[in-house]
Amino acid sequence: MGEVCRTTAGVLARAFVGVLACLALSGCPGTTGGVTGNDPATAAEGQSETAAASSYVGHNRIVVAFNDETNSKSNITYTPTNRTTLAGASLMGWSYSDDSGTTWMYGGKLSPPKGWAVLWGDPAITSSGANYNTVFLSNLAVPTSKNPAGGIQGYLYYDSGASYIGGACIAKSTDGGAHFAIYQCVSNTAPVGAFPDSTNGHFYDGGSMASNPSGEIYSAYNDVYTGQIDVWRAANENALFQLMPPPFAGLTVATHPRLRVGQDGSLYVGAVIRTNSNTPLVYLNRFANGTWGRPTQASNPTLGYPLIDLNSSVAGSELTTPGRNSPSMWALRRRGGTMRSVCSTRGRTIRRTTRHSTLTPSRARPT
Hints:
Elements: H1 9-27, H2 40-43, E1 47-56, E2 60-68, E3 76-78, E4 83-85, E5 92-97, E6 105-109, E7 116-119, E8 124-127, E9 135-143, E10 152-153, E11 157-158, E12 162-163, E13 167-173, E14 181-186, E15 204-211, E16 217-223, E17 228-234, E18 242-243, E19 252-253, E20 258-261, E21 267-274, E22 280-288, E23 291-292, E24 296-297, E25 307-314, E26 317-322, E27 338-345, E28 348-355
Antiparallel strand pairs: 1-2, 2-5, 3-4, 4-10, 5-6, 7-9, 8-9, 9-13, 11-12, 13-14, 15-16, 16-17, 17-18, 19-21, 20-21, 21-22, 22-23, 22-24, 25-26, 27-28
């Protein structure tokens, strides 16, 4: 089954957790300028769920992607009990900084391309390892074939785990993340018996991107319909993305993926796996020399999506941190209404809006 991961599971686990810890610190930076909210374009609406990359355009640049509700009132509407998402809706926004996070420029938002109705967040981003001025950005997406004529009412999932989401769209920038254009949308349309709509696109959740020094680009998603991680590979920054064999064949994936590239250019993928005893365990696999290795357990029993109770409240509502599967994702949860908060460490801040209710779908957790 290809080359086995030669590093021990314990070393892999420490390395993987160490990378995530660094991202947790860098994903919520600063005492200086906010990523959003300081300009008229983003101040009126909310942004959440960030992903960051760096690029080089004669100088260093930081690019931060986020779920962006800027100018969305015409195609995402809320009532006290419902949310309606119409064709043309997009959460695919980004900002960039050329002065180490002191000031930020809002890049804008992309519209869904032909054949796709909605771009729906869970951003992932990476710079090409071969050309550092080329940046790729991913969002989950709803294909037109799965989008109801009158729009999507409420959550984007329905009926025993099925979803209107049916893939993801990947955008490309050749100027270091100042401007993006849709490059390719990807979708797994293989039939899955339990989900009749699978031929219109499997339900993707989460997203992670990476690139190696030779310029191969990888983008991965949790395929909810198959319980696998779908990894897409482009041989270089101008090639089309192709679906790779699954890294965790025979196992059941329970969380979003995380991709990292080793110093030798090999690709590592990590995710939480549900065992036969329903015990969550972190597993890793390595792609090198054109093949996946053997999935390797890299943790003791863990939690899939822990909810951390901070034993506090804001305006009478509980204050919690949904662990999700990324330590850099923080949110405030409030029952009924909207809350704005600022997450800040080491140089950059981003204003976040969270909307949670027992009746109203959450803005912080877009599905």
